[in-house]
Amino acid sequence: MSSVESTVDAGFVARHAELARGYGGGGDPADPALVQAMQMVLHIPKADPPRRGALLAAAASAVVRLCLDERVGPDGEWEERYLTWKRSRIRKVARRARGAQWLAAQEVDGVTVEFEGAQARALVPGAVGDIDPRIKRLQIGGTELEGDEQNSIDPGYPTLWIDSELGMSVGKAAAQVGHASMLLAGAMPVRWVYAWAARGFRCNVAEAGPEHWARLQRRVAEGSATAVRDAGFTEVAPGSMTVIAVPEN
Fold first, then answer.
1. Contact, 115 vs 202, CB < 8 A?
2. What's the pTM value of the predicted model, to 2 decimals?
3. Strands 226-229 and 241-246, sheet pairing
């Protein structure tokens, strides 16, 4: 990603700076209905479901693209909703859709990404008590996708490695790679992220076995990779390291 424009758009710089400040710190509101969450919609048609890895890559790209969209920046139409979520305890909820459900989800504020035939949409965050009815009716769990054969890794893009030992559902994994793409973008220099944006925030998503995971953990300790540690609300124990994002392969 060396071919970077000499001047990065000022609006992008501001949005990246906000992302780089990190998130959380605000805690949860007393009213559970006001808890903030980003809804994610995964397109999983019944007849021809996508590859798991491609769907997770689309989900990760959709999240980071939304977080750096000009509409979440200063004076943007989504700014207030985005910042309210980002400055509280970060949550993402992945739901599945097909057919008319998927088409209806496109009418709700957000960003859709397609990758190798897989599609995912990250929606502008908001209070869980105020979810759009077209999204609220979508199931959170249920449909699963078989794990891929180990995909070839394109060295030109970052890779989000998932701990294979955790056995996360596709919905849980989608939320975790979404966290990872945000963290990676916030951790990297703005020019690197600007170049990544120019390439559609494409990324590799793959599973790492125990030996590889141990090597990745050493990279986290060295500061050359970024890790997601889950709060443990669902599926995994609190503090579990779920995804490690590597900027260069």
1. yes
2. 0.93
3. antiparallel
Are 72 and 122 a contacting pair, CB within 8 Å? no
Q: Which residue matches tokens 């909820």?
A: 93
> Which band of pLDDT confidence, cut at 50, 70 and 90, is reported for residue 5?
very low
Amino acid 151: pLDDT? 57
Q: Are 216 and 244 in contact (CB under 8 A)?
A: yes
C-alpha dist (Å) from residue 151 to 139, 147, 191, 207, 209? 28, 10, 28, 9, 14
Residue type, 112: T
Tokens of 62: 């959709």
Q: Count CB neighbours of 122 within 10 A.
A: 29
Nearest to 95 by CA among 65, 51, 47, 128: 128
Question: What does the pLDDT look like over 28-74, one tens digit per residue?
Answer: 788 999 999 999 999 999 889 999 999 999 999 999 999 999 999 99
Task: Tell me the percentage of the chain whose pLDDT exceeds 70.
Answer: 93
Q: How far apart are CA 19 and CA 210, in angstroms?
A: 31
Positive/negative CA dihedral, 238, 241, 242, 245? positive
- DSSP code at position 247: S
